[in-house]
Write a structure and sequence with these properties.
Arc Repressor Mutant, subunit A, 24 helices, 7 domains, 33 strands, seven-stranded parallel β-sheet, GIY-YIG endonuclease
Length: 810
């Protein structure tokens, strides 16, 4: 039998199937999707079995054997393997990179395997006597590798047969320290009479051992040593001495980590739907009933009750015995979303996002694979949840760029969701108050089914938006970062004990420092970008490579003392607010305050309990938050994203401002939004004032058509970087020349040109852009580019990155 394997060596030469012989003992067990260890040249590498066949085109005499099976149950399903081939082609990635991204990080390391008796199967004494000695009772466990070394050939055959009939199970135990959680437990090894007899012969001074025996005479079940020690106030030594004497049995038991252990979620019931919600859910429920794949674009204004539509649609899916995946774009959104899902579906929910530890993610992933849960909630990577009977996939805030992975494989979760939806013939819901232009254009053309919800739940009014022209504030002599209107509005909210959200999409204290005498700006020595001043640790930091410097007291260029701080970050806003409002309680949420595990949830819970008057933060506070006491939202620099060199800058500004505005007045109290800007006449800001997505869409689409950008054209971006500037320019020129000669005349190739940030981490960056409507040769040509430079990239600092659907133009 032949296993066709993708090996864990990322190069063009190895990006294909390699044939290996399957040892006779494992021929009944091998299935596609398993991870194996195979000899590859002089070394052993990990690989994935993609196919199992009887024959090979090569002589079996030349083939090597699979050395080890890491899994006894394939972690990748047949559908995920099929999806990996599609992703490999669509993202121009190595197959191994796609396969690895589908698994949690813990599974990229080798883990040990324990052989245990299947407790759920009624054995009826069927275990052969040859292996009974290794498993004297149903709680016995053996190390798989060690056992195979010790058993005879006959015993080995019996063990493999027992595995096939599921009488024995192989339980993976992750070998790395951070992903393995063991608990030491003890239980009686002798009968109650045996313990009483042993107790009567103990010496008079062995009081603690008597206490332990008394406990087990009345309690027969196993108990963690730590818990027993605390319960009856005895030392660990008193317990282990009874283990040494053969009275108690001690073993290590793997326990599943639950990131929400100890948390109680109060069960909630479905809420009555508003007429718009009823209308929105009807076609979705019909798609579930008829088992057909349809992609719905649900555009609902902020507060229109999209989440309740999701919950009730998932409820329908679960009633059919199927599973659901729910994606949210950011970790900060996950706590509130998880709470709502856990309250509705209880233990049926698994959570997958980057704020969990490696071990927690691994255990949550296993709960999905072992069919212990029906719903997966998480960020981008949760799209690969190993369900095998998916009934619905939902992508909330579908416009968010975080759904696009920016390193290989450069997939978009939306495309993967639609592909999986087609396979399982189930609906895919893309939800947003401000859908991406590409999605909305597809909705208008009928590629997606467009559903709109124009009103908030219970007809709550959308907040009134006031645009403050900061140029006028300057003319009046107000040089602070707060307009007079915003200060007055904040005073009013503080008097009423209502809450405020302040949004500024810049962390740190000052954007840059400048010498007023000579114009010197402190820049990162490794990147062509200015350093940001952070007040808390009195340092200058690069937000691209992490370089840190102390603040100069005098100008390093002219030795002058006119060093000044320019621009404002969240730290500075916090300091200025405290000067204006002495007693104000501010909760700041940005990358600096949310580094610690669980800090997102902790800060939001604190705000939810009313322990803060102001929630101040970057874009992580812009979406999904639903607090009834927020009545004022202040946007401090509305045009911060408007002038960056990216054709999507107006779209992203409109989306972000609309999302932030939607945090105000979501319940009984009326909301107000104050937008501070230096470009009050820009259409994206004017349409935020009117809450008019359709108007913005029409204006932006006109500009995109004139400029030839998506959704009217497709783009591909080639990034070339190296530590040698001359080499970067030369290679980019050669690539551009080659591509221009190979593609059709209607396809336009721009470049070579320096990237918007020409140097990051001491690497010079150039790029060229391909713009096309139909280009059948594109994949083939781009693959040729990668093959041409493969050897050079392996031996030098040269790096070539191709993105066939770029979201970051910088």
């Amino acid at each position: 039998m032949i296993a066709k394997v993708i090996v864990d060596v990322a190069s063009n030469q190895t990006d294909r199937l390699f044939d290996y012989l399957v040892p006779m003992d494992f021929q009944e067990l091998v299935t596609p999707g398993m991870r194996v260890v195979v000899p590859f040249g002089p070394r052993k590498v990990q690989g994935f079995v993609i196919e199992v066949t009887k024959d090979s085109e090569y002589s079996t005499k030349k083939l090597k054997y699979v050395e080890e099976f890491i899994d006894m149950e394939a972690p990748l399903t047949k559908e995920l393997l099929s999806l990996s081939s599609w992703l490999k082609e669509n993202t121009l990635s190595f197959h191994i990179a796609v396969l690895k991204v589908m698994l949690p990080a813990a599974m990229r390391a080798k883990y040990k395997k324990k052989l245990v008796v299947n407790r759920e199967k009624d054995l009826g004494g069927l275990l052969p006597s040859t292996i009974n000695k290794w498993f004297p009772d149903e709680d016995s466990a053996q190390d798989w590798e060690e056992l195979l070394k010790r058993v005879s050939e006959e015993e080995k055959k019996d063990i493999l047969h027992a595995l096939k009939t599921k009488e024995l199970l192989i339980k993976p135990v992750v070998g790395t320290r951070e992903t393995k959680k063991l608990l030491t437990v003890v239980k009686p090894l002798v009968s109650e009479e045996g313990m009483i007899d042993f107790r009567s012969h103990l010496q008079a001074n062995a009081k603690k051992q008597r206490d332990v025996l008394d406990y087990f005479i009345h309690h027969k079940e196993e108990i963690p040593i730590v818990e027993l020690s605390e319960k009856i106030n005895v030392s660990r030594n008193s317990i282990t001495s009874l283990v040494d004497k053969g009275i108690l049995h001690q073993e290590e038991m793997e326990i599943r980590r639950d990131p929400y252990a100890g948390r109680e979620f109060q069960k909630t019931n479905p809420l009555p739907l508003m007429p718009e919600q009823e209308k929105a859910i009807k076609p979705i429920l019909h798609s579930i009933e008829t088992v057909e794949h349809r992609t719905f674009l649900l555009r609902g204004v902020t507060g229109s009750g999209k989440t309740e539509v999701y919950l009730q649609a998932i409820d329908k899916v679960l009633s059919k015995g199927k599973e659901a995946i729910m994606l949210v774009p950011e970790i900060s959104l996950t706590p509130q979303m998880v709470t709502r899902f856990k309250e509705r579906f209880g233990s049926e929910v698994a959570v997958l996002h980057s704020a969990l530890s490696t071990g927690e993610k691994y255990d949550e992933w296993r709960r999905i694979r072992d069919k212990k849960v029906k719903v997966a909630v998480g960020a981008r990577s949760a799209i690969f949840a190993p369900f095998e009977n998916i009934g619905m996939i939902i992508i909330d805030e579908e416009h968010e760029t975080s759904y696009k992975q920016e390193e290989a494989p450069r997939y978009h979760a939306r495309d993967v969701a639609i592909q999986r939806g087609e396979y399982y013939q189930c609906p895919v819901i893309l939800g947003s108050a401000t859908p991406s232009l590409e999605s909305y254009a597809r909705g208008k053309k009928g590629v997606y089914e467009l559903i709109t919800m124009e009103h908030r739940v219970n007809n709550v009014k959308l907040p009134e938006v006031t645009i403050m022209d900061m140029r006028e504030e300057l003319r009046k002599g107000n040089r602070s970062m707060f307009s007079e209107s915003l200060i007055e509005a904040m005073k009013l909210r503080l008097e009423r004990k209502e809450q405020i959200v302040l949004f500024l999409n810049r962390r740190g204290y000052s954007t840059f420092i400048l010498c007023r005498d000579c114009g010197y700006v402190a820049e990162c020595p490794h990147c062509d970008i200015s350093l940001t001043y952070h007040r808390t640790n009195q340092s200058l930091q690069c937000h691209y490579c992490g370089h840190t410097e102390t603040i100069p007291s005098r100008c390093p260029s002219c030795e002058g003392d006119s060093i000044r701080f320019f621009g404002s970050g969240t730290q500075k806003v916090e300091e200025e607010l405290k000067k204006i409002f002495a007693e104000i309680r501010i909760i700041r949420m940005d990358v600096d305050t949310t580094r610690k595990k669980g800090s997102h949830e902790e800060l939001l819970s604190k705000f939810g309990r009313g322990e803060g008057d102001v929630l101040l933060g970057t874009q992580m506070i812009a979406k999904g938050l639903d607090f009834p006491n927020i009545t004022l939202v202040g946007i401090l620099a509305a045009d911060a994203m408007l002038h960056i060199p990216d054709f999507r800058s107006a779209e992203r500004s409109f989306q972000l401002l609309t999302q932030v505005s939607g945090r105000a007045g979501r319940h009984d109290k009326e909301g107000e939004v104050i937008v501070q800007t230096y470009t009050p006449d820009h259409y994206s800001i004017l349409d935020v004032k009117e809450h008019d997505f359709v108007s913005f869409f029409q204006k932006e689409m006109l500009l995109r058509k004139q400029a030839g950008y998506p959704p009217y054209f497709y783009l591909a971006l080639i990034h070339v970087s190296d530590t040698d500037l001359t080499k970067v320019v030369t290679v980019t020129e050669k690539i551009c020349h080659f591509i221009k000669g190979k593609l059709s005349p209607n396809t336009v190739v721009y470049g070579p040109v320096a990237s918007a940030i020409p140097r990051i981490k001491d690497r010079y960056r150039y790029q060229c852009m391909i713009k096309y409507k139909v280009e059948p040769n594109l994949t083939e040509v781009l693959q040729e580019v990668m093959k041409t430079y493969q050897n050079e990239m392996a031996k030098t600092d040269l790096s070539i990155m191709i993105d066939t659907n770029p979201y970051m133009m910088m």
